[in-house]
Design goal:
CATH topology of the largest domain in chain B: Rossmann fold
CATH topology of chain A: TIM Barrel
Strand order of the largest sheet of chain B: 10-9-8-7-11-12-15
CATH class of the largest domain in chain B: Alpha Beta
CATH architecture of the largest domain in chain B: 3-Layer(aba) Sandwich
Order of helices and strands of chain B: EEEEEHEEHEHEEHEHEEEE
Largest sheet of chain A: 8 strands, parallel
Oligomer: heterodimer
Number of strands of chain B: 15
Number of helices of chain B: 5
Number of helices of chain A: 9
Structural class of chain B: alpha/beta
Number of strands of chain A: 16
Number of domains of chain A: 1
Strand order of the largest sheet of chain A: 3-16-15-10-9-8-7-4
Distance between the termini of chain A: 30 Å
CATH superfamily of chain A: Aldolase class I
Radius of gyration of chain B: 17 Å
Shape of chain B: globular
Largest sheet of chain B: 7 strands, mixed
Radius of gyration of chain A: 18 Å
Strand content of chain B: 35-45%
Number of domains of chain B: 2
Order of helices and strands of chain A: EEEEEEHEHEHHEHEEEEEHEHEHH
Helix content of chain B: 10-25%
Chain lengths: 304, 254
Amino acid sequence: MDLSITIGKKTLKTPVCVASGTFGYGSEYESLADFSSIGAIFTKAVTLEPRAGNDIPRMVETPAGLLNSIGLANVGVKKFVSEKISFLRNFDCAIIPNVAGSTEEEYLQVVDHLESCDDIFGYEINISCPNVKKGALAFGTNPAMVESLTSQLRAHTQKPLIIKLTPNVTDITAIAKAAENGGADAVSCINTLIGMVIDIHLKKPVLPMGTGGLSGPAIRPVGVAMTFKVSRAVSIPVIGIGGIMDAGDALQYLLAGAAAIQTGTVNFIDPAVTGKILRGIQQYCKREKITCLKELRTLMRYSA
Amino acid sequence: MNQQFSIIKSIKKIAKDFYSMTFSWVSKEIPVPGQFITIRISEKNIPLLRRPFALSDYNPKKREASMIFQIRGVGTEMLAQKKAGEPLDILGPAGTAFKCDTSGHTIIVAGGIGLGPMLFTASYLQKQKKPATFIFGCKTSEHVPATRNFFSLNPVICTDDGSLGFRGTTIDFLNKQKTEKNCELFACGPQAMLKGCHEYALKHAIQCYVSLEQIMACGVGACMGCVVKTVHAPGYARVCTEGAVFNSRDIAWI
């Protein structure tokens, strides 16, 4: 069956991708992951200058979840191009850097740097990281800023532009529509939810920044609901993210209307999970007698 | 680093709250002292993340590895309930090692559950007939493991309450000894003990290597979550990749 999906003018070989921040630069998973099943590797966020990241501790486990405050720790775009891309070339997976910045100008400069790399499939624009003081989330919660940033980026690249949405808004569809109006080729739905864990003995949050981003199975119903809404609000592909642990979870997103999915926190727990998810999707499609992934969402017996 | 679908060979309680687990070793990569594994304890999402454990032994003939763990929360409680014959999902071996190629004397300091990697290190040096002093500190005699393996290393036992061996901490003990010039210090245990080891090493101008602990998500260097503060740029290093064994002079001690 045809497992490929189209984003902009380009094609991913499978709908199963790995989420930014959960797969490093790929090389960390060399001996562990099932690269043949991965449609695209969304890399650790890349900023113009290297970032050391946030104070420690950076993580705390919650019921079926992980609250993190990494703070976009990364090597910077120059080192990313000179040192990190070469490993990713070894595999038949699309390379999609996750681009972050504090200002519109920084996003544009990062993309300009990356444009010199033919191996890059497209960009995921991170306007939804809850763990940095400036930028990122501020962009992602304001439709006018999302449209402006997207349209400016559109003028700098022909490659697929994917806007990563935050769930930390009243109406995620307004942000998704703004991305579409700005010329985005797809949206990733969703980034982490803002959360806090308090140490009752120390009487302060466990994470030094106070809050962090919640991921893992705890947030899956939120991701599925937002994917359902967003995929009905825009006509560009939606990439479903949030708490996917297995093929059943991935299928919830695909039925909800996602064109593809990203595995996140599960990569830490089951690094070869993408192969199992892809096989599970294939088996389901075979049972349901569909030959093209796009037909999957038509199976839904519910419309809101 | 491999994902290994291993089988538990035995789980034994060796002291109050301390358990020793032995399991088959599938990977071709041979683990060395200081290295760790991560275990997926449950497939039911609670606990969600893998848990890291330093290895306490490797038996090349039987192709079995061991670790020591303490019940600290839900994960380790579930681990202690497991039985011989059950499968075990492991990633490893991971991280850096204690370099056991030294020509001089090695002082090995273990505190509490920090015993695991130091047991591996001490027995490794013993097999190579290298001179070492093995110091183990814990709260009371209840925490001293009643195993032949432990006592065959001629440990100096320090208890906080003096119920067995030296009364006081491992650092108190260290400070009462004559120091040798050509020696190195290897340590794993509570933060205060490790800092004490570091200060001892500075005072006596010897090298000190410490195995550190931090909450870990991926255990392979991808998530940037398990960092500790260092004195070198960019100011942080990953426990899972640049560690868990660090030169104590690289660490920004608080």
